[in-house]
Amino acid sequence: MKAFKKASVAAFAAGLILGCAMLMGGCGVNGDKRIVRIAHSQSETHPEHLGLLKFKEYVEENLGDKFEVQIYPNELLGGQTKVIELAQTGAIDFVLVGTPNLENFADVYEVFSMPYLFTSEEAYHSVMNDVDYMQQVYRSTDEAGFQVLTWYNAGTRSFYSKKPVHTPEDLKGLKMRVQQSPASVNMCNAFGAAASPMSFGEVYTAIQQGVIDGAENNELALTNNKHGEVAKYYAYNKHQMVPDVLVGNLKFLDGLSEEEFEIFQEAALISTEEELAEWEKQIEEAKETAANDMGVEFIDVDVQLFKDKVADVQADMLAENESIRDLYDHIQQVNEEYQDGSEETKKTQEGK
Ligand code: GCU
Question: Which of 47, 134, 253, 339 has the fewest C-beta atoms lying within 10 Å of its C-beta?
Answer without folding.
Answer: 339
